[in-house]
Amino acid sequence: MTNFKLMILAAGYGKRMKNLTVSTPKALLKIYNKELLKHNIDFFISLGCEKIIINTHYLHHQIKNYINDYYSNTNIKLIYESNLLDTGGGIKNALNYFENKNFLVSNVDTLWNEENKKDVLDFINNYKEIESCKLLLAKENKFLGLKKSKGDFNLKNRLVERWKKNHPYLYYTGLQIINPCVFDLIEQKSFSINILWDLLIANKNLEGKISNSKIIHIGDINAFNKFKDN
Questions:
Q1: pLDDT band for position 230 (50/70/90)?
Q2: Burial label, 171 (beta-carbon count in 10 A; 0-12, 13-18, 19+)
Q3: pLDDT digit string (tens) for 53-111?
Q4: How far is CA 37 from CA 119, 145, 160, in A?
Q5: CA-angle at 13, arms to 197 and 147, nearest 5°
Q6: Which of 35, 72, 179, 196 has fewest C-beta within 10 Å?
Q7: What region, left, alpha or beta, does residue 164 occupy, with left being phi > 0 and alpha being psi -120 to 50 degrees?
Q8: Extended strands (E) in the chain
């Protein structure tokens, strides 16, 4: 798999990290002595990513300096949001950089590693053929880090639906494939990606695939403290 393009979402305040993000953006917090952003960039470049877009807002100058210092020779473009556009709006704001072709989106707080490579390659193998959006999901026993009291989704006949009581616990891993055409469904500039997902679910048009490998989500300070010294 080569030549795909990726967006990394890195604009948020990281409030669930509490004091850790007072003076450091979440993207630059270190796990295993390596920044979360670097875990993402290095992982997807190793899979053949040819271009990376990163949206920024909170403490954006730190991220800009980091990319200039360590990735100046890499095809990485930063998009500064003067006003936060939320997850969906941030992606919509970057569409021009993907030339109306399918692309990947990763949350910066997913700790991608060697164990995930086969699953991610399988997931993105047919990314050019996705007609709307496709999510990589994880079962409860494979989802580590941020603990939740309910599931995110259910998967039925390869289609994603919202989790309901008595459904198996399935969680969003932080990785999706997007066909730019789906943003025609929303006129707003600032919105959560969940709004778009719900529209696609209503139209039975949101696909999903379950990861077999363990997914580590550094979603809050407890997850950070659990994995930072492992």
A1: low
A2: buried
A3: 999 999 999 999 999 999 999 999 999 999 999 999 999 999 999 999 999 999 999 99
A4: 20, 17, 28
A5: 60
A6: 72
A7: beta
A8: 5-9, 30-31, 34-35, 51-56, 76-80, 103-107, 133-139, 143-145, 153-156, 159-162, 170-178, 206-210, 215-217
